[in-house]
Amino acid sequence: MNRKALAAPIAAIVLLSLGGWLLHLRVHAVSFDPADPSNPANVVPFAAGFLSVIAAPMLLASKRTFVAGYLWNGMSVVVGTVTMASLSVASPPSPLTFGGIMLGTMLSSILLLLPKLFLGEIVLRQYHPNGMGRLFTAGWWARHFVYIAAVFSIGRIVWR
After folding, report:
1. Is the pTM of this model over 0.90?
2. Residue 65 has what pLDDT?
3. How many CB atoms within 10 Å of residue 129?
4. Where are the domains of the chain?
């Protein structure tokens, strides 16, 4: 394992996480006022963004804790992507055109989030050059995208 090779992907994860977190805070400001009705909805992404910027990179930097950081990094991508895609499908742009899809949905934010998954894979390959067997492969992540999307969809249908 080359420690210098870890610095660039971890720094990229930090920068992407920080950029996404600040973009989210700009769009959905967090209020710590208990009387504010948006308080619970915005505190969760605030905390997730904070952990993605601070905790995940620290966990990724150590071989003993990188699996926890790798899972946090990957699952934040999966949950964020599914949530943003769901919100885009629930309120599509009108009229539905190529430009509307590109600029009027959460596609740009999803495209900013997805590289974190590939950067996490680079970190994984530094610690385990041959992978970890059936764990953390592209198929493993694809299954988790489907699982979380199914749970999210069922929740939206049941609790409408």
Report:
1. no
2. 96
3. 8
4. 3-158
